[in-house]
Design a protein that fits this description.
Elements: H1 20-39, H2 45-59, E1 64-71, E2 76-83, H3 101-108, E3 113-116, H4 126-132, E4 139-147, E5 150-159, H5 170-209, H6 226-239, E6 245-248, H7 255-264, E7 273-277, H8 283-291, E8 292-293, E9 305-306, H9 308-311, E10 316-320, H10 327-339, E11 341-342, E12 351-352, E13 356-361, H11 365-370, H12 376-382, E14 385-388, H13 399-413, H14 423-431, H15 437-451, H16 478-492, H17 503-507, H18 511-520
Parallel strand pairs: 6-13, 6-14, 7-10, 10-13
Antiparallel strand pairs: 1-2, 1-5, 3-4, 4-5, 8-9, 11-12
Length: about 525
């Protein structure tokens, strides 16, 4: 803003009569300034507020202009912004209600205050008069600014060099300018708060869903069988290195726990461990989730966002169901493994990251290579240190320990006394084949804890799954076993997917993951006539 041509720069508004040309010039300047405030970048906002105060000072030919804020929650008033020309003192950021209690009370009551130093102060403003000397002003006018029905700000213009008259027509003009400044400031704060909440929510979302709590010495992995101890020995050996690990095994064997154990025993244990379920994320979203995106990269990308690899820098990324990645994403993952660079969606410049990758799959990746679904070069990179997690039927001696652990956990969770586990129950559980492995055992035990009456664990008869020791000709492909098991659980829950007694909870899956698996396995709810 500049001083209008109709006003003498040496005289300004003060001392002049109210005229239409001056009013028109002022309101045009006001409109231009208001438009600039809306468009100004956040990092230049404070400077623009001060520039507005400077414009007021020049327009009305005064030497100082300040914007103070009243905080209802603390009953305090603080100087937020101040302008004075070079060589003259501006008001520093400070609390003003203690120095000027009478002025503050008048303004809070929505009464403008016009003062002349030193003879214009009323007797009750003795404290204000004593402290006014530091302001070094001759005359001042303070206008209360009402926002949402209460006084929130004050705009003050002061003449430091000479006594001035303050025409009454000046009050609404200053009040209008103050309202523009105040509303712009509150709007910026709301926008900043929304952005902070959004960023915080996104980060918290990552923390809740992907950053996994670790326990040392494999505290979450329960069992003493030889098969399990061999895998844990391998975990301890590879954890000391930064080698890429490929965890192999059937659904439900606990590959995520072993990824935690590797990370928790490594030099990266104090950095994030982020999990990405490649099967659960929609193909259109997974690239952005993994590698991030720039603002405007696609519809809805209103701000730049880091991907999981950037967030996990110096830590570990656990890629579950890595066999589900599309060929295009396999190429990008290969680049991360080869040279440590990620490229955000919509970005032209790659970003260097230092991330260890642990991948997991229950698919036969070599078969995927033969069928053209998986890149051979990526397989060799991922397969630097393969670890096969044994299925529960190959570690039956661990079942009693697991059952006791789950019974204690679920009795505590459901506020029940600890239930006694009988030998016949353990025998039945050890003879079952457990196609869903440890995850299925966990769900069976929780269901038993909920329905048991008295002091003894009561497990329903287990009929789902393959025989305990099937012959080779009766073995089913893993996908068929998984489909049978999901179908059985869906039938038992009357095809209810979500909720406390839904199929997703029993299977230990997120509802969206279960729906994705159902679609992949071509499972659909039968019509009433079919049933």
């Amino acid at each position: 803003m500049s001083t209008p041509d109709t006003a003498d720069p040496e005289e300004g508004w003060i001392g002049r009569s109210y005229g239409p040309e001056l009013l028109l010039s002022f309101e045009r300047t006001l409109s231009e300034f208001s438009a600039r405030l809306i468009q100004i970048p956040g990092d230049m906002f404070d400077a623009q507020i001060v520039e507005g105060l400077k414009s007021i000072a020049r327009f009305f030919n005064v030497e100082r202009c300040t914007l103070t804020e009243y905080l209802p929650e603390t009953q305090e008033t603080h100087c937020r912004f101040s302008y004075a020309p070079d060589g003259l003192p501006a008001i520093p950021p400070m609390r003003t209600d203690l120095l000027f209690p009478w002025i503050t009370a008048e303004l809070r009551a929505n009464r403008p205050v016009i003062l002349h130093y030193p003879h214009g102060f009323p007797p009750e403003a003795e404290v204000d008069l004593r402290n006014a000397a530091m302001g070094k002003f001759k005359s001042s006018i303070s206008i209360p600014i009402v926002i949402d029905g209460r006084v929130r700000f004050t705009l003050t213009a002061a003449s430091l060099l000479q006594h001035r008259d303050w025409p009454e027509e000046l009050l609404p003009r200053l009040r209008l300018f103050g309202e523009i400044l105040a509303n712009a400031l509150l709007r910026k704060r709301r926008d900043d708060e929304i952005r902070r909440h959004k960023e915080s929510a996104e980060q918290e979302n990552v923390s809740l869903r992907e950053v996994m709590q670790l326990q040392t010495e494999h505290g979450e992995i329960i069992g003493k069988s030889d098969a399990l101890q061999y895998v844990l020995y391998s975990v301890e050996r590879v954890a000391r290195t930064d080698a890429t690990v490929l965890l192999l095994g059937e659904t439900g064997v606990g590959k995520e726990l072993f990824a935690r154990a590797i990370h928790g025993s490594s030099a990266r244990k104090d950095r994030p461990l982020l999990k990405v379920d490649c099967a659960a994320l929609a193909p259109s979203l997974i690239e952005s989730e993994l590698f991030g995106h720039e603002r405007g990269a696609f519809t809805g990308a209103t701000a730049a966002r880091k991907g999981r690899f950037e967030i996990a820098d110096s830590g570990t990324v656990f890629l579950d169901e890595v066999g589900e990645l599309s060929p295009a994403l396999q190429v990008k993952l290969l680049r991360v493994l080869e040279d440590g660079f990620v490229e955000r969606v919509g970005a032209a410049k790659p970003i260097k990251v230092n991330v260890r990758i642990i991948a997991a799959t229950n698919r036969d990746l070599e078969e995927g290579i033969r069928e053209g679904r998986f890149r051979q070069d990526l397989f060799y990179r991922l397969n630097a240190f393969p670890l096969t997690i044994p299925p529960l039927r190959d570690r039956r001696s661990d079942i009693p320990l697991l059952v006791e652990h789950f019974v204690r956990m679920f009795c505590l969770r459901h506020s029940r006394p600890f239930l006694r586990i009988t030998r016949p129950t353990l025998k039945m559980l050890q003879e079952y084949s457990w196609p869903g492995n440890v995850r299925e055992l966990e769900n069976v035990v929780e269901r038993a804890v909920i329905i048991s009456e008295g002091v003894t664990l009561q497990v329903q008869a287990l009929t789902t799954g393959t025989p305990a020791k099937p012959s080779a000709r009766h073995l089913k492909p893993l996908a068929e076993v998984e489909k049978d098991h999901i179908l059985a659980v869906l039938e038992k829950t009357l095809w209810r997917i979500e909720g406390q007694s839904g199929a997703a909870r029993i299977l230990g899956l997120h509802p969206d993951t279960l729906r994705h698996r159902m679609k992949k396995l071509q499972i659909s709810r039968p019509r009433v006539a079919d049933r």
